[in-house]
Every structure is written in structure tokens, then in C-alpha cells.
User: What shape does this take?
Amino acid sequence: MPTNASAAAHALMDVTASDSTLRRFLHGLPGVDAVGLEGRAASLGTRSIKTTAKAYAIDLAISMVDLTTLEGADTPGKVRALGAKAVHPDPTDRTTPSTAAVCVYPDMVATAKAAVAGSTVKVASVATAFPAGRAPLAVKLADVREAVAAGADEIDMVIDRGAFLAGNYMKVYDEIVAVKEASGAARLKVIFETGELSTYDNIRRASWLGMLGGADFIKTSTGKVAVNATPANTLLMLEAVRDFRAQTGIQVGVKPAGGIRTTKDAIKFLVLVNETAGEDWLDNHWFRFGASSLLNDLLMQRQKLATGRYSGPDYVTVD
Assistant: This one.
């Protein structure tokens, strides 16, 4: 670990000076031992959690949820209901923490902002021609600026996976830098769509590329493809943010998204965070779950711990 974090950060800036230096750096990262990575992720997933720790973990997980609706059929009414649920996930128990954010398309940001006004809940907006990212940069930046102007606190961008897989790393880097600038004060989450990156080595390279470009969070997936967040790819990204902070002094968050539906799954991910990146990331400023159905299971499990019985799915709202 460097004694001078700013000097280390400056040294890393040099790797983005040209396409060749960036390529050399990314391909110089240690190769990923797939068997070892998956084995460690599986091993950490077997940790048992006692009742008191489970209650803490459930509340922590609720506070980390980015409650999400990203459908073509989204309506203002649906977004307002989602906002109300984010602020008070369990209206019968005001000790239940609010979620971290609601995540919507840019045209729904103003509606979401009004729905969560006066609360701690942030409004996140996907942008940059989500989910495919197949649009000219000018269109992507206009998408971002519209969301920010409407009040978005956070922007979730998608990288150009085609450019990345073709080895055009500088194009991807330049787009991240441009989106970061267009985001202004909004925090930037950079989505890799790990299910399309094919290899763990690519996920590690994308993680570093996103952080070099100024990401405040790195995010696994859009939730729109067959393979989304997994314990293994999230573990790999947690290792990346840990190592990046060790070299630069800069902390970056992680957001697994898609496919995390149960309390058991969420707790496994929290164990990964604690054992890999450390306690500094066990906060919704640095770790999020991109989810829609997860919150319902967390609420049912929370009531089970409080009352000793399940209330059933009718206890929670249907998203």
C-alpha cells in the first residue's frame, strides 16, 4: 500500500494517457483463477448467521436496496407507489429502515423525486441508452443531463460492451469520463453487464477501467440479460475496489443487480462484502442491491423474526 495516496492516484492517471498504455495496464492485471474465485464465493456463502446478527443483516440489506422499476409499462402511478414503498417499506412498522434509492428511467425521475421528497431515499436513473448502450455519445450525454436536470441524485450508466470486447478500451474510458462530467454532483454507477463480458479477466479489467474513469460505484448488470449478479462476479469486483483503494486511497462502491431475490441470497452477499472489502463497505453509501422483488422477502423474514411466524406474500405490496 503506498504511503502517499495522491501520488499513487497520479501514477494511475498515467495509464490512461494513451490507448497503448491503458491496454498494457489492463492486460497486465493478474489473471483470475476461476476455480479459486468460485470456490471462495461458495465457501463464504455457507457461513451461518445467528438470530441477532440476522436481524441486523436484514435491516442493513433493506437500507441497501435500490428499489427498481425499469419497464416499458411504467406509469406515474406505479412510480409514486414505488417511492412510497421505498420511504416506508412496512407501513405497519415504522422502525423498518427506508431503502437507499428508487431507480427509474429518466422520464420518471421528477415523479420519483416528488414521491420521496423529505426522506433520505435517493432517486437513481438509468441512462446512456440503457440497457444496450447502443447510441451516439451525444445522445447518451443528453440522456444523462435530462435525468440530472429532473433531480436525479445518482446516474446508472451502461458501458459500450461492443467497444470493450473489441479491445477499444480508450473509447469506453472516454465515455465514462464524459458521463461523469455530465452527471455533475450526481453519483455515477458504471454498469458492466458482466453476463456479456464472457470471462472473469474481462470483469476485472472492466472494474479497473470503470474506476479509472471516475465511477463512484461499479455495478454488475442491467438485470435485462440471462446472467446477472453472481457471488463470484461480485466477489471479483469487491476485490477490485479493495485493491483500488489500497493503491489510490479512493473508495468506490459496488452494486450487484439482477437475480438477488431472497433474504438468504442478500445475506450471502453481505458476508462477501465483509470478508473481502471489509466493514467500510457495509453501508448503503458503498454497497447496494439492484432489486425489485428482494425487498418483499426481506420484509417477510423481518416479520418472521419479530413475531415467530410468516405473514405470507399478501403481507407485502406486489410490485
Remarks:
- The chain has 13 helices and eight strands.
